[in-house]
Design goal:
The chain has 253 residues and is an alpha/beta fold. Helix 4 packs across helix 5. The chain contains 6 helices and 13 strands. Helix 4 links the parallel strand 8 and strand 9. The radius of gyration is 17 Å and the shape is globular.
């Protein structure tokens, strides 16, 4: 019966608690997803910049013609299959989860190839995520090497930065197949340098990398996955719930 329930859970629904409740209308994240005729799904997740509400970001993306947008005011939290979609205060990117295939390894091997500007501490964030049990994260500076071939079973996520001049500070693009595995070559991180000193670049980089591992948001403010910007420095590191989500919900043994 549980499998039947899971089959109809929307990929834009987050499971976080023991009872159904309405999610905040402004969670700092805006998603777009488009289902393709071949059964694959293409999506993007945008993180609102400081001082920008999710509602305002949604409207600006809609005006720009972004397809498949989900109005953040309509997103809801569900208790269905919470054990599969949350751990502690952390939620998966989608429910049911979207994740990397292990491809014969004990844990998925994810390489982040970084060509972002020097202000973005991507390497430090990769080091933090590599502490997680269940997924192995590696750093490549673009001038020192190329992405490993997907034929090796390893995955690669390019990380770039530019002055995008928009209401978002970070964005990931992704696609996944009918079995809800990320498609190699489809996952990318974009860091927006248009927003300067008021933004905590370390926190933003940490969050975008976490999204590419399959994490959605964390309701605890001591996690870099906390989706609401707070006064002063934002959390720069994953917390124990983020690591638990990776180990027990996303990439269990």
């Amino acid at each position: 019966a549980l499998a039947a329930v899971l089959a109809v859970v929307s990929s834009i629904v987050f499971a976080t608690g023991s009872s159904a409740e309405t999610a905040p209308s402004d969670i700092g994240l805006v998603r777009s997803e488009v289902r393709k005729p071949d059964g694959t799904t293409t999506g993007a997740l945008y993180t609102a910049a400081a001082g920008v509400s999710a509602a305002a970001l949604y409207q600006s993306l809609r005006s720009a013609g972004v397809q498949g947008l989900v109005d953040p005011a309509t997103q809801s939290q569900q208790s269905l299959a919470a054990a599969l979609c949350s751990w502690g205060t952390a939620d998966t990117l989608a429910c049911t989860p979207v994740r990397w295939h292990k491809r014969g390894f004990d844990d998925p091997q994810v390489y982040f190839r970084d060509s972002s500007g020097s202000g973005w501490p991507v390497s430090a964030s990769v080091t933090e995520w590599n502490r997680a049990v269940g997924a192995d994260s590696y750093y490549i500076w673009y001038a020192n090497g190329s992405c490993p071939s997907a034929s090796t079973g390893r995955h690669c996520v390019p990380v770039t930065s530019a002055y995008y001049g928009s209401n978002w500070i970070g964005r990931i693009d992704y696609s996944y197949d009918a079995n809800r595995y990320f498609l190699d070559g489809s996952v990318r991180v974009y860091l927006n340098s248009s927003h300067g000193p008021s933004e905590d670049y370390r926190s933003v980089a940490c969050a975008q990398l976490g999204h590419t591992l399959g994490i959605g948001q964390n309701t605890a403010s001591n996690s870099c996955m906390y989706s609401t910007r707070v006064p002063g420095p934002d959390a720069r590191y994953p917390n124990s719930s983020d690591f638990g989500l990776i180990r027990y919900a996303l990439y269990p043994d």
